[in-house]
Design a protein that fits this description.
Number of strands: 6
Radius of gyration: 14 Å
Strand order of the largest sheet: 2-1-5-6
Strand content: 25-35%
Order of helices and strands: EEHEEEHHE
Length: 103
């Protein structure tokens, strides 16, 4: 599995991404725990504060996450419709799940 973060700042149009962490523990340590506990995390030598975010998602994927967020949204929808187990086993390149709330 791979883990990626997608977020959008309130004052920007572009969706930013931190792609393809190799483990859930790595993304928890580097992004999620700082975000949850202190209300901020580091991205490209910049501190991102919770108040600045329009949205924040951590996505689990079967293969490397695509760069395009629209594809990620489509894969999440397909995973919900077809079932996680089926897609993860048969078509892992289409498996994507928003795990933000689970953490």
């Amino acid at each position: 599995m791979f883990y990626s973060v997608f977020f959008k700042l309130k004052n920007e149009n572009e969706i930013k991404k931190i792609l393809n962490f190799l483990s859930k523990e790595e993304i928890l340590e580097k992004i999620y725990f700082p975000y949850k506990n202190t209300g901020k995390f580091d991205f490209n030598n910049t501190t991102i504060k919770k108040e600045e975010l329009e949205f924040f998602q951590i996505i689990e994927t079967g293969l490397h996450s695509p760069e395009n967020y629209d594809n990620v949204k489509r894969y999440i929808k397909e995973t919900q419709q077809l079932g996680e187990k089926f897609l993860n086993e048969k078509f892992p390149n289409y498996y994507a799940k928003d795990i933000t709330e689970e953490l």
